[in-house]
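Record 1 of the preview.
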Amino acid sequence: MRLHFILVEPEVPENIGSCARALNTMGFGSLRLVNPACDHLDARACALAHGSESVLKKAKVFKSLGAALEDLDFIIGATNRTRTLRHEYYSSTQVARILEDKGESVNDAGIVFGPEQRGLSNEDLRECDLLSRIPLFRRQPSLNLAQAVLLYAYEFSRFTIGRKERRMRQADPDELKMFMQKTDELFRGLGIEPSGNLYRRAMERLAALTHYDMRIAYSIISFIKR
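->
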């Protein structure tokens, strides 16, 4: 599984450089920037990257979040903001385990971080399959962007550090998408509309299924549709 870190409208070059350093230290190299408000190759960013300038140089820049996520199979939104709409939130440790359990159903996964001052918008979060937050003892002082990226990179480092090399079947990137599509069709047929809270909460829970459980659920959905 390849993991990509996406920063939406980052404002401070030092934060981007620190994020690059965190990723490189934990064995990751894919950094994506959506409408950055600063130059990610600025001298200040390179100084904070400290030996991880290669991550900055390889970083991909996108004009929209949708474009940055287009080739990904599974997307996690990182947020600590309280929302008016109810959502299922998973801790940084939990989402790492969920990703690990996805196994062969995911080739490319992404985790999305919002701007330093306001975080991800509700519209941004709708692009994500799961939402995650870091458990904090107190809300203030909060973690900055680079610290949050480092904590998630550490949790996800189980994919890169101390992992035994083993041959695995290539993941089918359409398997998860097909499962969610079939579930959507079933819900609509039952009158459970996407605009409703039940639909959204159910889809969030289903997105967290392991690869094995997803296949069982897919079989049940196919049986119901028949």
